[in-house]
Write a structure and sequence with these properties.
With 239 residues, the protein is an alpha/beta fold. The protein is built from nine helices and eight strands.
Length: 239
């Protein structure tokens, strides 16, 4: 067994334990494997292991690996039992001028945090004749160096974006604070879950609003315990 597969199995075991601890089903949580530091060969390993959701922070690296992984999946000559396709998630900060490049490769954007970016995504999606899913990035840790709409403005931004054509507002995303203090991390995730439930209860985003993306390599177990439906884990797998 390779080190990557061994790490992946450990992450999966930790997720299952966190689900059991919080009385959730493992099927309620999607693991997005973050590939920003991984080589194409390393990415192929996790795909062979059954991972169909891959996440990228940088548009440049997404361009490098997207086509190679697609070609890998289309090659049936090696007799491997591979998934027919993978779903790429754009999880990093997205500039408006990169929206077209990203939407050609990814139908799930986690990092929409301004009205202008949402407008660009909607306009580009219309031209490409697609309907991507987007998450509102909310700065629940209130750290000034982080992207994300302020907590108090999240519902208002959701109300504005949901009126745009060609976009599905599928939930919210947040990043835990950069600290080893588990109480601070948990408090940030609890606040994100509260905002998610507030928007859901308000009924402004409709049937597609069901995802809470939070939890990375150093805090994904806490995120599961606090209601995450999508985890973004990379270095714990590719270390």
């Amino acid at each position: 067994m390779s080190k990557i597969v061994e790490n992946l199995e450990q992450v999966e075991s930790n997720i299952a334990d966190a689900c059991a601890k919080s009385k959730r089903g493992r099927e309620e949580v999607t693991l997005v494997v973050v590939t920003k530091t991984a080589s194409p060969e390393a990415i192929k390993e996790v795909v062979r292991a059954g991972c169909c959701d891959l996440g990228e922070n940088k548009v440049q690296h997404l361009k490098l690996v997207h086509d190679e992984i697609a070609q890998f999946l289309s090659d049936k000559s090696n007799g491997e039992n591979l998934p027919s396709e993978v779903r790429w998630h754009m999880i990093g900060h997205l500039q408006r001028n990169k929206a077209r490049s990203v939407l050609k490769m990814s139908s799930f954007v986690h990092s929409v945090d301004t009205l202008r970016l949402a407008e660009e995504v909607s306009k580009t999606a219309e031209k490409l004749k697609i309907t991507p899913s987007i998450l509102l990035q909310v700065n629940c840790s209130q750290e000034p160096q982080k992207y994300g709409v302020p907590v108090g403005a999240a519902i208002h931004l959701a109300e504005q974006i949901v009126t745009m054509p060609n976009i599905r507002v599928a939930g919210i995303m947040t990043m835990g604070p950069l600290t080893r203090d588990e109480d601070l991390i948990r408090a940030s995730f609890i606040r994100a879950h509260e905002i998610f439930e507030e928007i859901k209860a308000a009924g402004v985003c409709g049937k597609y609003f069901k995802h809470l993306s939070m939890g990375m390599s150093n805090d994904y177990e806490i995120a599961v315990e606090e209601g995450a439906t999508i985890l973004r884990v990379g270095s714990a797998i590719f270390k």
